[in-house]
Design a protein that fits this description.
- By secondary structure, this protein is of the alpha/beta class.
- The chain has 2 domains: 2-74 and 97-179 and 271-347, FAD/NAD(P)-binding domain (3-Layer(bba) Sandwich), CATH 3.50.50; 184-269 and 353-387, D-Amino Acid Oxidase, Chain A, domain 2, CATH 3.30.9.10.
- The chain has helices at 14-25, 38-43, 52-60, 65-70, 90-93, 104-117, 167-170, 238-249, 300-321, 325-328, 330-352, 360-375, 377-387; strands at 2-4, 7-10, 30-33, 49-50, 72-74, 77-81, 84-88, 99-101, 121-123, 127-132, 140-145, 148-153, 156-159, 177-193, 201-204, 211-217, 220-227, 261-276, 279-280, 283-285, 291-292.
- The strands form 4 sheets. Strands 7-6-15-16-17-14-18-21 form an 8-stranded mixed sheet. Strands 9-3-2-13-20-19 form a 6-stranded mixed sheet.
- α1 runs parallel beside α9.
- The chain is globular and about 65 Å long.
- The structure holds arabino-flavin-adenine dinucleotide and P-hydroxybenzoic acid.
- P-hydroxybenzoic acid binds next to β16.
Length: 393
């Protein structure tokens, strides 16, 4: 079946769904093509922390109601090292900004519900998606659904299909420059039915490795610990995970981590990646399709949303005023934020993780950096302003 729309979007993650939502609000038609099922994308456990800018956008565009009800607003975080905790007062240091704990899959549910309520078109379980002719005026997307071949003609294609998608690799050789850094460790993450042991997030630097205490609700704790990049989850029974987290997170001998049933377990690789430019002809890459950050700074989802705000504004200017200037500058505009977020995510990761080839000097230098960040107002303010989200251009 052949059909047509204005913007063809590959991927129903935060980037693709937020883009479709923003375009709808501007009166621009789109079709989202998603490889997985609706249930799969609505249940996939991933990010959990929303920047102030992302929270504002969800509220301003009418999809923030559940987040306001269920999200946990946080005014500070704690850095733990040398067995002691140091609070960073995010709100005080940023003139009132906060972050909100609200799981990525909840944002996905809210955006899918909003698109369906507005009559939006999301094709789930689209197989063998491929993109064509995006260096000409009539790009198209081919895919199969229920065994039937389909072709979607459009004016523009948004590649929102994540790091392992098809859009970035479809760009001809020689166009893209890739910047890549793979870290010598990963995160082992668990979701547990346990009351959070702290009201706020705890980032812990420890000689045994990094650990992070986060949460999803008053009854669900989200925890991560630094592990080997090729760690085998089978080597980590629940008790061993709890014991290791207790060792790394403890501040003083009386501090106890609340334990409970582990309901999800996974390993997340740590990588910094950028593909430049983020566009080719009428194809525009957004989110993980264009860049990956290590999750230490909680930026992946937030950067994806920032990209599609820029893209939606550019497409709106094109359709409303036949002005291509913002589209032409899309990549340049996004990359200014992308590289600042890459720097912050790399900095948080480098400061808080143990590197096997570091020597005693490096470890003392890390401790000095943590001591500086938690004792200098200027230094803690730079952490805070990046953590809550830099202002949008
Ligand atoms: P996504 O990967 O979310 O979405 C891409 C979508 O495209 C997916 O639904 C996929 O099924 C679909 N797709 C792929 N190929 C396709 C094809 N050929 N055809 C059609 N559809 C296709 N970020 C944080 O900030 N904090 C975290 O703690 C954190 N934890 C993470 C844990 C894991 C295991 C992973 C993988 C990522 C994590 N991230 C985290 C980063 C993550 O949240 C991403 O930054 C965010 O999902 C980016 O959103 P999108 O760019 O929309 O890409
Ligand atoms: C999470 O809650 O999943 C989370 C929070 C902060 C991070 C990374 C992950 O830096």
């Amino acid at each position: 079946m052949n059909h047509r729309t204005q913007v063809g979007i590959v991927g129903a993650g935060p980037a693709g769904l937020m883009l479709s939502h923003l375009l709808h609000l501007a009166g621009i038609e789109s079709v989202v093509l998603e490889a997985r099922s609706r249930q799969y994308v609505e249940e996939r456990v991933r990010a959990g922390l929303l920047e102030q800018t992302t929270v504002n956008l969800l509220n301003e565009t009418g999809v923030g109601e559940r987040m306001k009800r269920l999200g946990l607003v946080h005014h500070g975080i704690e850095l733990r090292f040398g067995g002691r905790g140091h609070r960073i007062d995010l709100s005080e240091l940023t003139g009132g900004s906060t972050v909100t704990i609200y799981a990525q899959h909840e944002v996905i549910k809210d955006l899918i519900a909003a698109r369906i309520a507005a009559g939006g078109q999301i094709v789930f379980e689209a197989a063998d998606v491929s993109i064509h002719d995006f260096n000409g005026p009539k790009p198209k997307i081919r895919y199969r659904i229920d065994g039937t071949d389909n072709e979607l003609s459009c004016d523009f294609i948004a590649g929102c299909d994540g790091f392992h998608g098809v859009c970035r690799p479809s760009i001809p050789n020689g166009v893209l420059t890739m910047y890549d850094r793979i870290y010598p460790f990963a995160w082992l993450g668990i979701l547990a039915e346990a009351t959070p042991s702290s009201d706020e997030l705890i980032y812990a630097y420890h000689e045994r490795g990094f650990a992070l205490h986060s949460m999803r609700s008053p009854n669900i704790t989200r925890l991560y610990l630094q592990c080997a990049p090729d760690e085998n989850l089978a080597d980590w029974p629940d008790e061993k995970i709890w014991d290791e987290l207790q060792l790394r997170l403890a501040a003083g001998k009386d501090w106890k981590l609340n334990r409970g049933a582990v309901i999800q377990k996974g390993i997340t690789e740590m990588r910094s990646f950028v593909a430049e430019p983020m566009q080719s002809g009428t194809l525009f890459l957004a989110g993980d399709a264009a860049h990956i950050v290590p999750p230490t700074g909680a930026k992946g989802l937030n950067l994806a949303v920032a990209d599609v705000r820029v893209l939606a504004r550019a497409l709106t200017d094109y359709y409303a005023n036949s002005n291509r200037e913002l589209l032409t500058k899309y990549s340049e505009t996004c990359l200014r934020r992308v590289w600042k977020v890459q720097r912050f995510s790399w900095w948080m990761t480098s400061m808080l993780h143990r590197f096997a080839d570091d020597n005693a000097f490096d470890q003392r230098r890390q401790l000095a950096e943590l001591d500086y960040v938690t004792s200098s107002r200027a230094a803690s303010q730079t952490l805070a302003e990046n953590y809550v989200g830099l202002p949008m251009e």
